Amino acid sequence: MRREQALAAAADHFDQGHFLATLSRRVAQRTESQNPEGGPVLRAYLAEDITPELQAMGFRCCILDNPVTGGGPFLIAERTEPGASFGVLTYGHADVVRGQDAQWRAGLAPWRVTVEGDRWYGRGSADNKGQHSINLAALALVLQARGGRLGYDLKLVLETGEEIGSPGLRAFCALHREALAADLFIASDGPRVAAPRPTLFLGSRGFFNFRLRVRLRPGGHHSGNWGGLLRNAGTRLAHAIASLVDARGRVLVPRLLPDALPANVREALSTIEVGGGPADPAIDPDWGEPGLTPTERVYGWNTIEVLAFQTGNPEAPVGAIPGEAFALCQIRFVVGTDSAHFIEHLRAHLDQQGLADVEVTPDGEAMAATRLDPDDPWVHWALDSMRRSTGKAPALLPNFGGSLPNDVFAELLGLPTLWVPHSYPACSQHAPDEHLLGSVAREGLQTMTGLFWDLAEQGPAIAERRRAAAGAPA
What's domain 3-204+369-470's superfamily in CATH? Predict the structure, then answer.
């Protein structure tokens, strides 16, 4: 069978309803990682749904406990072929956010796929059951089209806790580093830049949450009797925030910013527009770093966001000077940022501004920023494959605007990382009425079929060339 025939078979697989049947079965399983009672359902999803499909393709599968107490299980699967000269690792997550059952509009339910035109509603349809189901279906189609041989080894790790921060993923991959060794990582999550445009992204922005707190005195004091005599915690905190980011969203602390926007990143972003969709908010044109395009601001630069701010009693304000104030803030950051020293940089800046009474502490675990070089040969290969499969010019995002645990694969395992998303920005991910677009799923199935096919054809030469460039044995 030729490549064109394999793509046609992928379209037929979708058009005949096979993919819809698979997705419907998987959406029906209430795999909520945020639900303490969801553990048995998550394990059953791996053991009773995914494992049989993989075993039918010749994978050896193993479900392993999480090395972190309270974390959900992992599925590792491996398929090897005699004489294969390189290996590929893929990934997905079985868990979804809470169903929010009562908040879906009439006629919809989170645990049932409902098709309305191009929209396929259901929890996990976009994040991530629909996406990893597309990839597994494409893999099966390529195996069938190539007579049961891929021409490369393939490994898969499927986690069950991505929606709660991927607890244990790093420790698990470190523990099984040798078993997960490969030459390339390719997976699907997140949205395309726009529904009609196939997208490839190479990493993700990182995030770092931090708390600012001013604790001047217990309780409030009458503003008439003490106004002008006592420091106001809310005022002090407002000035602290204003010293970090100005009224137009520009970050004012150089040490919280990246070194520069690389030329090849700027070039990749030059063909991409953000926003403009029917459900997208209107972009504020004068918000953020001056001199950057809106696309560069969200994909190529750092931001500071105030997520919560409280002083006094907002529900029942009184005429008293508050003694305490609190804010939760977030830095989204790209590669080239000194993220390991955020707290030190924040502390030094606040002290320099005369705001020593403002406490700054980290909040939760940070996620690292990653970005594969846009000039990597795997990137050029993937873009060419996607172009051939879809007849469209794919969008190249050097990194996703949000955050994914990509640092585990890029840094810990040392892999070049390619992400091919099968969703779109208005999919209501994490919200009621989550949905997948049937047109995007159909095109995604053909795109992944083409990628898995082309790995057999061009993959060995690219893997050997990268090893030679790195000085590794072929």
Answer: Zn peptidases (3.40.630.10)
